[in-house]
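This part of the workshop introduces the protein records we will be handling. A record pairs a protein's sequence with a compact description of its fold. Comparing a sequence with its tokens is the quickest way to learn the format. To make this concrete, we reproduce a full record directly below:
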Amino acid sequence: MSVRLPSRRVSPAERRADLWLALALLIGAIISAWLGQVAGVYGDETPAFGWALVYSAALTLPLALRRRYPEVVLLWVAAMFYVGASLRIPEVYVGNVAVFIAMYTVGAWVADRRRATVVRWMVIAGMFVWLLVTTFQAATADGDGGLSRAGLFSPFAAYMLLQFLVNVAFFGGAYLFGERAWAQARSRAALEERTRELDRERELTAAQAVALDRVRIARELHDVVAHHVSAMGVQAGAARAVLDRDPAAVRGALQAVEQSARDALVELRQLLETLRTPDADTPTDSTVHLSALPDLIAHARENGLPTTFAVVGEPLEAPELVQVNLYRVAQEALTNARRHGGPTATADVRLRYSADAIELEVSNDGRAHLVGRPGLGLVGMRERASASGGTLEAGPRPRGGFLVRVRVPLSSPGSPASPGVPVGPGVPVAATPSAEPSTDAEARA
């Protein structure tokens, strides 16, 4: 990932560190100049010591601003170093350190890399031009003192070559160290940016997980509550209709209402226990499976919806999530049929097994209830089919009624179904005399 570092603000701690560095170099430059004058580095050509004090301050104190104005500080320090050497100020060591630090700072802190490169190469070129000029002057000057110049590789030539090599190492080191510091800062910036991206992605993932949990909880609550409340409403209406004529029927209807309420509470308690259990993988751990379909069919018949049930094909063992989702689709489809199909509606549930898929089909011959915007029941069924990797078809049948068909592919054939799932040919479990027998072809119409 390409990261361009912006200009950094200098922190108070970094400002204090630069100030202390400048003061330490100032003291070092003053001591070095005094010792150089005592040692007679430049002999009688040395100016008064007051000039050494001015030079030391002009050379070192600007380093206190080196991170805020790195290019200006480098050009100033390089110019002061040239002036000091030209005036024969007897201080050379701290001056070299100051130039090194200033050049390093430009490489490590300037965000505009082109400008940083140009400024440093200007200083390096100027210093080497100066070195070439002084070398030429020393080579052509008359005088008997100094190093011998006799021979192809004289002591004088060796000394000048040493000066060039030292300067190459000096400026090359300052340049490369600055580049390395910049590269490290760039890597840190990239890592910090990546960390921020990961934090944002983690927050987004957490928010999405919360949203999915809310959808899952809403879907489960809808399936549980809608099914049982619908049955309770049917039984309560039947009890009200025969309240004065048939007390025994009223008693039976109220018992059915009571049982539906108890079943709803049991399923709600199981759902809440699953949601509160940290190690529960899915909400299917405490809910029903395909083995409970006969009980679901019996419950639908008891609550006023004549329903038949058949299993087609050799039952296979399906994943737990698929079983729960298929059961919930059947439950919701029967609830909708009882709620919208009318008093004379009948339903037919078929569970088909093939070598690579399971198909659940719930049809009824009542009124088609898909009007305008689909309700939450159809949305939940579609979500369950998608969560199982399958597809859902839902819509009115040409000859009347409504059809819900969900098909879930299986990755590989499973073992025989678990106990409780009806095994055998497609024989209806129960049918009312008015229920019209249907074939697979008719159900698919």
